[in-house]
Amino acid sequence: LSSAYFYKGLFETKNPKKQELYYEHGVNFGKEAVTLNPKAIYGNFWYASNVGMLGLCRGMMASLASVDPMKKGYEIVLKENEGFFFGGPHRALGRLYHMAPGWPISIGNKTKALNHLEKCVELGPEFFNNRLYLAELYIDIGQKNKAKDQLEWIEANDPKPEHKIEDSVYKEKGMEILKRYF
């Protein structure tokens, strides 16, 4: 249920209060799963994902407060199955290290982000979000040619049927970035 609420929140673009409520439900169901089994791959991954999105909905301070539970959940998944959900723990940790402020405020670290995001593309090369997040990081660290390669791959490929709806969103965002920067 935690993953279902994550996606309900992700695709709820018109009503921020409703979106926040979906993520809150996702956190609650994820917490329940992790309480029952602290090493649960699905429970930890979707709990951490909902915590992060709920933090973003609630603003900067809530986002910073969500960093530690997210990191802990994703590290458990990474240890148990780094390939889960197309390299999901690497994708999530890479995004966390990329987007979080750096020391002394938080754990942001572009080198760690790069290592995780390159690994998630290696593990899940056909999952568009892996390449999108890596392209965004490449742009931030001044490696625009590498970013362009990732974005052009997204442009040239069609989403796989098993994650077509989600990949279509990432493809659209990737094309916006491609037009903006290149």
Report on the architecture of this protein.
By secondary structure, this protein is mostly helical. The chain is built from nine helices and no strands. Helix 1 runs antiparallel to helix 2 and helix 5 runs antiparallel to helix 6. It is globular and about 45 Å long. The mean pLDDT is 97.
Q: Give the SSE string.
A: HHHHHHHHH
Overall spatial form? globular
- Beta-strand segment tally: 0
| Alpha carbon gyration radius | 16 Å
Number of helical segments with 4 or more residues: 9
- What kind of sheet is the major sheet? none
Mean pLDDT: 97
Q: How widely separated are the two ends?
A: 40 Å
* pLDDT < 50 runs, ≥5 residues: none
Helix content: over 70%
Instruction: Please state roughly what percent of the residues sit in beta strands, choosing from under 5%, 5-15%, 15-25%, 25-35%, 35-45% or over 45%.
Output: under 5%
Structural class: mainly alpha
